[in-house]
Amino acid sequence: MLLPLLLLSSQMLCQVLAADYEMLIDDPEIFTDCKENPPGAKGISGLFNLDELELTLDGDKIHVAGNATTVWDIEPTDRITASARLLQLDRGIWQPTVFSIASQDFCGIMYDKDQYWFKYWTRHVDDIDTMKGKCINHKGTKLIHSPFDLNMVLNNVRGTTLHGRYKIVVTLEAFDDEKSVKRPDSICVEIIGDCERL
């Protein structure tokens, strides 16, 4: 009888200690090139032509509407790895946090409904059934978005407090698996802002 009560109490305590945080982005352009770029890395303009995409910053929301066309010049057969990491500025140095996601085959999960990428981005791409055969490794692919708001909010954060200056670093790398080589061009972008508890 005591064990179930202790488990229930600890679960309730975890839920009570959970908090939501918002990230207030500085740059109205949203994406910046990585400050510590890996060799051969390009910024967002190396991945997409954003001339037809409207990104509008409004507090903790980014309004997204329009089209993005892939310009990354790699082979359609290349495997793409993707990672997103949250770093905190601490005494002038960007320190890693416990928050990160990664995929060794991004094209395999780009339209997977159970993935973060889908939840926050690709579910808003029109005609998903047709687009599933294409990925960011197909130069010239146009991703047509239904207008949506991207909330820069982390929900139910437990075990850590987020306060101060943070950045999200997204890195994409392409691999020719037949030759077992990494392509020289990669993508690295940052989103920088301040996190506050809601």
From TrEMBL:
Organism per entry: Drosophila hydei (Fruit fly)
Signal recorded as keyword: yes
Signal sequence coordinates: 1-18
Keywords: Signal
Top-level taxon of origin: Eukaryota
InterPro entries: Uncharacterised_DM11_DROME
Gene: LOC111599962
Protein name: Uncharacterized protein LOC111599962
